[in-house]
Write a structure and sequence with these properties.
The chain has 293 residues and is α/β, with parallel strands linked by helices. 41% of the residues lie in helices and 17% in strands. A six-stranded mixed β-sheet has the order 5-4-6-7-8-10, with helices on both faces. The model has no long low-confidence stretch (mean pLDDT 93).
Length: 293
């Protein structure tokens, strides 16, 4: 049974509809569902729950899934800083919060590292950890037109590579890039996808996709179901964190985007350092308000 909520008012009744269908497991997707998910988890201890992007709740019948998306986003920011022709990147989200901020913060950190290594001064529109209250957010996860309008403003201000942390709203950004390329033959823009492999989900924009920062939610969902079916063992009761090390997050590069081999090798060389913790992927400002255990 699959139910899509149209607003926050739908969360509780939709979860109850899931409960009424007498399932063995319910998967809640999205940090904005945390309160409704917790209430349902507490009220139904005999049902197993998986909560995607909610890793701070701990109950015996809950598997909370978080993701260190800053790790893959760092690589995306590093490559983007090396690919920009205008020296300006841009990012935005739907609603501001720690779960989405880590994408933008990691991207910003990757850009900053590239600047440090190469002596460049690439900047980012829409996000600055020193000005978090000014982060660009369109107030929706589904308003493609709003994402497009904001992207057109960023384009007007010189951005040529975008990181929209707003689900499929990013197709509005891709469409804005296409239009700008059509009206200006000297312009070439790119978009970095998130969560899914955009070359698969949005192949119509293959020429504009630089890569995708994958959040492989299927890993813990599959493993938990497999464990229950094969051994009767529930792996919940504690958080499951997706990382570069366990393959829960990764970068799918577009092989046809023209990324120089030396730039790609340079970025990939940071992966062991990110895994070991030697290379930070979150800003001090982010960690000051959202410390990582």
């Amino acid at each position: 049974k699959y139910i899509e909520s149209k607003s926050a008012d739908d969360y509780a009744p939709n979860l109850q509809a899931c409960v009424d269908s007498e399932p063995d497991m319910i998967v809640c997707v999205g940090f904005m569902m945390s309160d409704a998910c917790e209430a349902s988890v507490k009220a139904n201890p005999d049902i197993y729950y998986i909560s995607i992007d909610v890793d701070w709740l701990t109950y015996p019948n809950l598997l909370g899934v978080g993701a260190y998306m800053d790790q893959s986003s760092f690589l995306a920011g590093y490559i983007s800083a090396g690919m920009t022709k205008t020296g300006k990147l841009a990012g935005y989200t739907g609603f501001f919060g720690p779960v989405v901020q880590i994408f933008l913060d990691g991207f910003w950190m990757g850009m900053t590292k590239y600047n440090e290594v190469h002596g460049t001064s690439v900047t980012m529109l829409g996000y600055d950890p020193k000005k978090m209250d000014e982060t660009a957010a369109i107030g929706s996860w589904i308003d493609v037109d709003a994402g497009r309008a904001l992207s057109e403003t960023f384009l007007d201000n010189g951005a040529d590579i975008f990181y929209p942390v707003c689900g499929n709203v990013g197709v509005g950004t891709a469409a804005a890039i296409v239009d700008r390329e059509k009206s200006n033959s000297d312009f070439k823009g790119f978009i970095f996808g998130m969560d899914q492999d955009w070359l698969q989900t949005n192949p119509q924009y293959a020429d504009q996709i630089l890569g995708s920062a994958r959040k492989k939610m299927e890993v813990p969902v599959y493993q938990s179901i497999k464990s229950l079916v094969e051994t009767g063992t529930w792996i919940g009761g504690k958080p499951y964190i997706l990382t570069l090390e366990n393959g829960g997050t990764m970068i799918d590069w577009n092989p046809n985007a023209g990324i120089p081999a030396d730039l790609l090798a340079e970025a990939n060389a940071y992966i062991p350092q990110i895994i070991s913790g030697a290379q930070p992927t979150l800003s001090p400002e982010y960690l000051a308000t959202n410390p990582r255990k």
